[in-house]
Amino acid sequence: MLVVNATEALDLPMVDGDLQRLEPLLAGSVMTGDGFLDDVTTHLIAAGGKRLRPALALVAATRGERCASEDDLLGGVAVELVHLASLYHDDVIDEATVRRNVESVNSRYGNLVAIVAGDYLLSRSAAIAAALGTEIAGLLARTLGQLCQGQIVEVRSCFKTDRSEDDYFSAIAGKTAALMSTSCRIGALTSGARRDEVDAFTRFGHAFGMAFQIRDDMLDVIADDGELGKPPGQDLAEGVYTLPVLLALRDPDAGPELRTLLGQPLGLPEREKARSIVSESKAVGTTVAVARLHIADALAATEGIDPPHVADGLARLATSLLHDMPG
Q1: Which residues pair with 102 in a beta bridge?
Q2: What is the rounded CA–CA span in Å between residue 125 and residue 142?
Q3: What is the sign of the dihedral through the CA atoms of 152, 317, 57 and 124?
Q4: pLDDT (tens digit per residue) in 9-26
Q5: pTM listed for this prediction
Q6: Which of 69, 188, 205, 210 could bridge across to 198 with cysteines, CB 3.0–4.6 Å?
């Protein structure tokens, strides 16, 4: 699996323990007593996951120096529930059949159940955020709006080979970076951090989230079957043209042939041909360079974070994104 192992990169043992304490809280937060609904709402929780967003929240809250408080843990639960809800909804939109190497919720239970269950996860997240105070509740509400805006930006540009890079960056800022940023900010807020530190963690989360999504989009093009936990090339097949694809379309060598394939749904042979064209183009190297710029922004943000070992851990996490990138 080509995943970012947050706890390994951060090297903050207390955070590992806090994430273990978070797991039963996460599952318990969505249990209703209705056997069927409980199976649906815990389906992806049971499948595991990186728990990257809760890890960011817990690092910002505890600095790896103390055990997380209940509020710290609940902040991590709130952001992970938003992430899980987005997966439920995304898989309906994408008609996905696999998520985290298990059957997707929509494939197993149907689209209607997946949509309503995703809404239920959002409602539980909102309730937890409300209990943490008005600032966190308002922050999470704004973040949900950004997630929706990012998704709409992406949907309206499907199958458009003239999609602009600005449109792409706007979409991933809403779909991914906003929740990463909010995860860091919620953790800093639950711990009562100084405002300058809250803002530094927030900046780190945004830059990290941008680089994370760019990396993910590149791996969707260049990774082999079985490495992603979902079929590679899915975005290409569904007309979601990400940064490496947009750059390849503008490449004088790769662009003309690629353009003959895109602009329409792709079957498996056409999808693999398009992946091959993008993978062999200069677009991959340029995509890595753009990701490096956002990683540099993340590293700059750590200069405002204390203590030094936490800043160093976050820097390692940011640079770990480069491990699976070419060059």
Answers
A1: 99
A2: 13
A3: positive
A4: 787 888 999 999 999 999
A5: 0.94
A6: 188
